[in-house]
Design brief:
The chain has 450 residues and is α+β, with helices and mostly antiparallel strands. It folds into 3 domains: 100 residues, Rossmann fold (3-Layer(aba) Sandwich), CATH 3.40.50.20; 70 residues, 2-Layer Sandwich (Dna Ligase, domain 1), CATH 3.30.1490; 243 residues, ATP-grasp fold, B domain (D-amino Acid Aminotransferase, Chain A, domain 1, 2-Layer Sandwich). It is built from 15 helices and 22 strands. The strands form 6 sheets. An 8-stranded antiparallel sheet has the order 13-12-9-10-11-14-21-19, with helices on both faces. It has a 5-stranded parallel sheet with strand order 3-2-1-4-5, sandwiched between helices. A 3-stranded antiparallel sheet has the order 7-6-8. A hairpin with a 2-residue loop joins strand 6 and strand 7. Helix 4 packs antiparallel against helix 5. The protein starts with a strand and ends with a helix.
Length: 450
């Protein structure tokens, strides 16, 4: 097994990896910017090394700095967490060229799935159902009009290198198309350095369902069921749950087996998530994330597995510690994301935490790197905590989540925690019938009725 790994990330996910590694007897190296000198992941790791000033481009996204940190500390492998360099094929190749191990899939798989057009073509060839749309990139506005007429409005235009909701524009009718096309290309160019776009039929009221998969890189793969991630604001998830409240066992096994077979055929290694829009009992592939997801804890809770330990095992060359027949769902799990943001406009709210108390008790887990006196820096994502609950059924999980939220104390900064008090009382949340548009509509109605 690895003796020492470096975590090329920060915050709660860096802490999550450190904990898994420590339980495996592996020493850890934390990297940090000057703004994160007092961060919890820096305090918890066996070693820590500063890799640059606060801006991400000069620290957490600096490949030379991270490679140098490995060489200085003697780390043998790098865990990327999520975000930052976790889906950067160039980084993976450089890591391998330096004789280090990347804890994740190959550069080829990341490159293929990172481009939405090549990902869609790959999945279609592997038998995974996809949304009707353009065969490839849409290079001209004239071509966009022709494709839109053939598949019918509404349509959505997406940057091929997009993610996190960026580079996605909706055209409800022909009159909307030109502006949507130009804006999607512009956002793709400014956010990802790639203005290529493609088009898909826009589904009116789908759910966002993602399938957790895991492969050993040698043709063996499993699925660990689905997560319902439909509760979103501006394409950013705020609540995730597993299993999906509207997915039955027959459907779960059907789509899960399809996804596991697909990644086994390409010898995929490590954790991955295949994301779908789901409507009228049909799945439509939208993208694959070749990394650990923010919401991975809900899958861990219902299957009683540690996905980070499994990533490390497979990266070292060991077989997966489970087979498909051993993976059985136990109960229900829900995760909510707590951001340092000021409601109702969700404006970032960095600052010093003057008092902090984490919820606890049976079936409650909190993944966070904050503490009393910690100053949240203004340079990074505003996610500061994830509360994950697990119970014997969905209604019990909702009640446990309400109880856990009532115990949470974060003073000194505004957070999104108060959002969940009224949200968890809504009928569509209680019965699980919400879709990807529900939260936006609910938030708009809340503002109008205020």
């Amino acid at each position: 097994m690895f003796e020492k790994i470096l975590i090329a990330n920060r915050g709660e996910i860096a802490l999550r990896v450190i904990r898994a590694a420590r339980e495996m007897g592996i020493k850890t190296v934390a990297v940090h910017s000057t703004a994160d000198s007092d961060a919890m992941h820096v305090r918890m790791a066996d070693e820590a090394i500063c890799i640059g000033p606060p801006p991400s481009n000069s620290s957490y996204l600096s490949i030379p700095a991270i490679i140098s940190a490995c060489e200085i500390t003697g780390a043998q492998a790098i865990h990327p967490g999520y975000g930052f360099l976790s889906e950067n094929p160039k980084f993976v190749q450089i890591v391998e060229d330096h004789g280090l191990k990347f804890i994740g899939p190959t550069a080829e798989h990341i490159r293929t799935m990172g481009d939405k057009i090549s990902a869609k073509k790959t999945m279609q060839a592997l038998g995974v159902p996809c949304v009707t749309g353009s065969e490839g990139g849409v290079d001209t506005l004239k071509e966009a009009y022709e494709i839109a007429e053939s598949i019918g409005y509404p349509i959505i235009i997406k940057a091929t290198a997009g993610g996190g909701g960026k580079g996605m524009k909706l055209a409800l009718k022909r009159e909307d198309l030109e502006e949507a096309y130009k804006m999607a290309k512009s956002e793709g160019r400014s956010s990802f350095g790639n203005e290529a776009v493609y088009m898909e039929k826009y589904l009116l009221a789908p759910k966002h369902i993602e399938i957790q998969v895991f492969g050993d890189g040698k043709g063996r793969a499993v699925h660990l069921g689905e997560r319902d991630c439909s509760l979103q604001r501006r394409h950013q998830k705020i609540l995730e749950e597993a299993p999906g409240p509207e997915i039955n066992e027959e459907t779960r096994q059907r789509i899960g087996k399809l996804c596991a077979n697909a990644i086994s055929k390409i010898n995929y290694a490590g954790a991955g998530t295949i994301e779908f829009l789901y409507e009228n009992d049909e799945f439509y592939f939208i993208e694959m994330n070749t990394r650990l997801q923010v919401e991975h804890p809900v899958t861990e809770a219902i299957y009683n597995v540690d996905l980070v330990k499994e990533q490390i095992r497979v990266a070292f060359g060991l077989p997966m510690s489970f087979i498909q027949e051993e993976l059985k769902i136990n109960g229900h799990s829900i995760e909510v994301r707590i951001n340092a943001e000021r409601l109702p406009n969700f404006n970032p709210c960095p600052g010093k935490i003057t008092q902090f108390h984490a919820p606890g008790g049976l079936g409650v887990r909190m993944d966070s790197a904050i503490y009393d006196g910690y100053s949240i820096p203004p340079y990074y994502d505003s996610l500061i905590a994830k509360i994950i609950v697990h119970a014997e059924n969905r209604s019990s999980a909702i009640n446990r989540l309400k109880r856990a939220l009532s115990e949470l104390i974060v003073d000194g900064v505004d957070t999104t925690a108060p959002l969940f008090d009224p949200l968890l009382l809504e009928k569509e949340i209680i019965d699980g019938s919400y879709n990807i548009h529900w939260l936006e509509n609910w938030l708009q109605a809340s503002v109008e009725n205020a």
